Amino acid sequence: MKNSLLVFGTKNFNNSLNEIKDFCDFSLTFCKDNTVFDEIISTISALLIDGEACRDPKNLKLINSVKNKPILLIERLGFIEKCNYTDKTIFPLMFSDFNTRIINLISSEKFNHNSSLEIKDYIIDKNEKKLKKGNLSITITEREIQLIELLFNEKNPLAKNILLKKIWKYSDNVNTHTVETHIYRLRKKIGSKFNDQNFIINSKEGYSI
Q: I need a surface site. Which of 4, 51, 114, 122 has the fewest CB within 10 A?
């Protein structure tokens, strides 16, 4: 299945892209009505912006409201300083360069998305193995990342035996303090650096975030 791009541009810009859309390695959806922009944006992989369209304050506000989507800005009449974008290129553009830029942009976004996780006010950077909050960060282990991610993805608290089975692959009848030890060390690191004693909550039902 092809990745889908939302094209947000002037009529002339849209017409020029419409001529090459059948040769692209992705599909193009043209936004003709600003009122349906929010509905469309959730279904696409990236946003393609015509720099000329950004000169309209209403369009600029709409574009800058986009979150968690890569944006390629096509610059035509000079740099658009106030427009948010991930990458930019110059118009007119060569088809091969345009095609490659889009593919790289989407691939990079997918990699970044899989490499980080937002939890409460924190960000887990899986590549650097760090838990970050603002300008502060701590180093965490692979097991701690797995533990945090599992607890975060579950709506209900998880009991010790479930954590042992899913993360450490232990059987149900193993008697060990592995979970308690890991959570104690993680809480200590988070408490010391971020002064947060409630990141991982312990109740009768188990552990949760």
A: 114
Phi, psi (5° rounding) for residue 4? -115, 135
Q: State how far the Cα of 55 lies from the Cα of 83, in Å rounded to an integer.
A: 9
- The predicted-structure confidence for 149-169, as pLDDT tens digits, reads as follows 999 988 899 999 999 999 998
Q: Domains of the chain (ranges plus CATH)?
A: 3-115 (3.40.50.2300), 120-208 (1.10.10.10)
How far is residue 206 from each of residues 130, 160, 175, 191, 209, measured CA to CA in Å? Answer: 25, 7, 16, 20, 11
Burial 17-56 (b: 16+ CB within 10 A, else e): beeeeeebebebebbeeeeebeebbeebbbbbbbbbbbee
Largest CA-CA distance found in the chain, in angstroms, rounded: 70
pTM exceeds 0.85 for this model: no
Amino acid found at 43: T
